[in-house]
Amino acid sequence: MVAVPGFHRALHEHIADDRALVAADGDQLAGAVLFGGASPRFAVHWLVISEQARGRGVGRQLMDAVIDLLTAGRGLAAGDVVEVVTFGADHPGAVTSGARVFYERLGFVPAEPAEDGPEGGSRQVFRFRT
């Protein structure tokens, strides 16, 4: 996904608005997370890790940094939530991507269904409460 042109366009827009964190591996993009929102509801819009960086903790580091940034710098208060939309349990990508397990390990909890993805597959909101 790091090579998807739409991702780079969104990344540059989020960087300009101070709503992105980026991880580098030398001069290569290892991953990035795009986020936004305001109290009481923040959102992770897009988390992308390069194929070469997967399994090395880059995603966890980026998500931990987002939670820390929102908590310290953006006023995440008790009762606020951070939401992310990922694959629904019945989506083939749910297992192959590891996304659902990843977010659960970070303390996110599955919540209500979300609008289907562009390919028609199911999506679900995962929520992290402070």
UniProtKB/TrEMBL annotation:
User: Per its UniProt record, what Gene3D superfamilies does this chain match?
Assistant: 3.40.630.30
User: What are the N-acetyltransferase domain coordinates in residue numbering?
Assistant: 1-130
For this protein, the record's Pfam families field holds:
Acetyltransf_7
Q: What is the official name of this protein in its record?
A: N-acetyltransferase
Q: Which domain of life is it from?
A: Bacteria
- Keywords of the record: Acyltransferase, Transferase
SUPFAM superfamilies on file = Acyl-CoA N-acyltransferases (Nat)
The record's section on InterPro entries has: Acyl_CoA_acyltransferase (IPR016181), GNAT_dom (IPR000182), YpeA/RimI_acetyltransf (IPR050680)
Signal sequence range: none
List, alphabetically, the CDD domains matched. Answer: NAT_SF (cd04301)
